[in-house]
């Protein structure tokens, strides 16, 4: 009996020491497009490469943040897209392919979504009709991504300029406001 109690106690402390990380339910292009036909929603596309250090940092520091993961899963179809993948992708009834360039290359769909500006990581926001709303280049910490993803998911981008939205966001989320420098 004492042995069972010891094992249960040990497992309890192991669970506390290693909290479960939040998970974004990343979809393939095919899965996301199929779901979108049944229930239209915006897309958030994480355009990355295998060699990108900032992409890996964003995976750990930002995408595993529980509130970020929950919001993305609820409001978007999330797609993780390797910009150098060599397989064909059918997107909006067009087939996009890998293009060899020098020692490596790029995927035609990445080129289209990024408007030819290859920078990693880049988050691309698409509307329900799969049109690009806007690509956002560079690493985003959880606070920055929270503000950005709500701007698009909640349709502020349609009526509110970014600067005005930032002011509104900071009033609604005062803890997110960085301290002023003296």
From TrEMBL:
The keyword DNA damage does not apply. It holds the Pfam family Thioredox_DsbH. InterPro entries: AGR/TXD, Ssp411-like_TRX, Thioredoxin-like_sf, Thioredoxin_CS. The keyword Transmembrane does not apply. Keywords: Redox-active center, Signal. Residues 20-92 form the Spermatogenesis-associated protein 20-like TRX domain. This is DUF255 domain-containing protein.
């Amino acid at each position: 009996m004492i042995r069972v109690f010891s094992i249960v106690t040990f497992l309890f402390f192991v669970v506390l020491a290693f909290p479960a990380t939040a998970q974004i339910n990343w979809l393939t292009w095919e899965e996301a497009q199929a779901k979108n036909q049944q229930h239209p929603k915006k897309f958030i596309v994480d355009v990355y490469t295998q060699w990108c250090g900032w992409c890996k940092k964003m995976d750990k520091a930002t995408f595993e943040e529980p509130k970020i993961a929950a919001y993305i899963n609820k409001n978007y179809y999330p797609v993780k897209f390797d910009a150098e993948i060599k397989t064909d992708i059918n997107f909006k009834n067009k087939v996009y392919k890998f293009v060899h360039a020098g020692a490596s290359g790029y995927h035609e769909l990445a080129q289209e979504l990024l408007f030819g500006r290859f920078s990693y990581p880049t988050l691309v926001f698409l509307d329900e009709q799969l049109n690009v709303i806007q690509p956002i280049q560079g690493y985003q910490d959880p606070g920055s991504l929270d503000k950005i993803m709500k701007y698009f998911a909640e349709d502020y981008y349609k009526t509110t300029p970014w600067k005005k939205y930032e002011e509104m966001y900071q009033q609604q989320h005062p803890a997110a406001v960085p301290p002023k420098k003296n």
